[in-house]
User: What shape does this take?
Amino acid sequence: MPAEANGEAGVVAPAPEPATEGPKGAAVKRSGRATVEAFLAKYGVVLAFLLTVAVFCIARPHTFATGNNAKSILTVAAPSLVMACGLTVVLVMQDFDLSFGAMIGLADGAAITLMATHGWNWEIALVVALLLGIAAGALNGYLISYLGGPSFIITLAMGTVLTGVEFALTSQDTIFSGVPAAYAKIGQGTFLGFSNMIWIAAVIAALLWVMLDRTELGRYMYAIGGNPEAARLAGIRTKFLRLLGFVAVGLAAAVVGILISSQSAAYSPSPGTSYLLPAFAAAFLGSAVFRPGEFNIPGTILGVLFLGVIQTGLTMLNLETYVINLVQGAILISAVLVSRLGQRVA
Amino acid sequence: MSTPISLVTEGLTKQYPGVRALDDVDVEIHGGHVLGLLGKNGAGKSTLIKVLAGAVAPDAGRIILDGEPVEISHPHEATQLGIAVVHQELIDVPNLSVAENVELGLGYPKSAAVLVNRRALRRKTAEALDLLDAGISPAAMVGDLGPAQRRLVMIARGLAVEARVLILDEPTASLTDTEIEHLHGVVRKLQARGVAVVYVTHRLDEVFQVTDTVTVMRDGEVVHRGPTAELTQESLIGQITGNAVVADEKRQSTVPPVGPGAEELLRVEGIGLDGVVENVSFSVHRGDMLGIAGLVGSGRTELTRLIYGADRPTAGRILAAGKEVRIRTPRDALRAGIVLLPEDRKGQGNITDFSVRKNITLPRLRAHRAHRWLPMPRRGDERRYARSLIDRVGIKVADEEAPVKNLSGGNQQKVMLAKWLDSDAEVFIFDEPTHGVDVEGKEETYKLMEALAKAGKGVIFISSEFSELVGTCNRVLVMREGRLVGELQAEAISDAALVERCYAA
Assistant: This one.
């Protein structure tokens, strides 16, 4: 510290300093505590995430704390990330979609069957898979938004219907030959050292982030989630935007179907069911962070990564399955509670 | 019921922040008599009812039942004393049966100690319903009944608790003529059984049909008490409005009547919605400040929702700037240059979780685009705009990023105003814009509306507070039971004239 600065401070705060110290200190302390609480409310899940990562790094420095492991976690998490981000769009508008597991299966099954069984070009099969996802999402949206069906039950039923379509197309046969190498390369290939799947997921997540956070469309979607009637009276096309949300889910599901089928270059019946719960878990975990109480893409991304880290880390600890279940649940609950606690006090 | 009940209040007083809701109120209610309790909105009738029902504790005064002072500090105690209220809003459970509603919370008859004995329950309810000639099955679902029948179910509930004092708060507000006649028959039957009936209504014809005595309230005070037979419709209107009230402090409208050549901005022809709004026609001209007066439930809000496309009309057409427009959604209305500021600001006006900024910029978010072709709003631009409107409208808020839910009711109202103020719409519909706004805020709101009219827009101003229409409008339409029943111009607009048209049979 230069002497000049010291001298100046001395001039500004002379004799009464001891007298004011008490209340001043208390005020600082109080606002300091409020700041901590506000910080926990917003970033509690981030802290929990970092803490979890640190614990795993210390426990398994040679397997967990490696670049390869990080890449592997990201690659495994990529399809989940696409799905969870797509799901976030409907959740923002207070809608639900339980049919995307089936949509993943439909896109996966359709693409593989068309190529392996019917000998279609992989490009055409890919486009058909994407269009199926869009169509299924649009149908969900039409039934829910325009005809007024409750999204929970409509998408649940739609999931059953779509699984039926998937089985009709594939005859429920497992298919592991006849998938063109070019198609398999989508999921198996790498770019700049990272799996293509990571790049695709990152681009989709980034696009949806910008869409929800920075565009008129995103603002309108949050407005619908906040108060649909007020949004409608403000001239927002609430029905169309809700439909669009379901289309986003359908499209995301189709992308996931393509990613996982190309990575395995195979089809086995109902491949999408295992994505249902993690996507919801990630999105809800994400709604407790960054913009607490609101679903948001950065939160969803963190949620997906968190789940991926827990899964991989616990597996590496060679724990028994029941312990993995207990610890996984406990970590998620505490992560959300940390932010809730901050929110409630703040 | 050997001796007729008597319920007397002495000096009841209730002070709310800024309002003396009850000021030394003495009321007498006797068994076998029907008392008409009258007064404008906000005269203190509801507060009085709430005190008698044990929902509100008075600051001073006492209640004497059959000569004994009683404390009614909880609704349950009112029920035990035999006082039952049938509220204006139907408070029932639509997905339960009539019998389950009538006996709700009174202890259903049981079999085997825990199972509800439905047969006994229905039998018990059937007695009450028969007495009312209701023609309703105790097993029917309340949600399947019409408003008149649901009202009767609530009255049956009053009978089930063996009420000796039955307070009916605007029981006929949504009923048809035949239903009203039936209800009057029920009231007379109860009267013959020695029940004391308090009948609150805004319909003066009813007062003369069913009541024996009337008590008129104004600004929290009882201003008249006496036999109905001694009154005429005119003298009653005089008592309700208080003709003698000094007029010199009253606000004067600064919006001049529009000339004969003024351009027509909006024309509504024969618009209707089955059973709610019937065959309404009017037009709004450039520079108009058009009031729509009417009591709650007269169809004013419903009318504006039809014009704005929030609901679909079943009849009629709308012309904007001389051309017929198809308005099926609020979006269509906005495109036709019509804006609505709804009455229910929490439910319809604002997105309360959003910040003040996001609410203000919501309807015209495109104005803040970073580039004409890029649908991404610039936050800095939004902030500056929001701040300028916070100043112009006088919203009391620390900064534009505060969530609207943290604001007071009046300030939330102003946020709604702010978001439409710069709209390039031609017609602005304000539905109860001063509801919950303090005196100062009211004056600011009037000035903003008048400024719009003077700038050549057309303003429609809906209010149940007639004095504010008198003080601001150059033309006032009166609605009653879904129809337009009168139009007043400039000098002819007065409180008394509005009241007469709103209440007259």
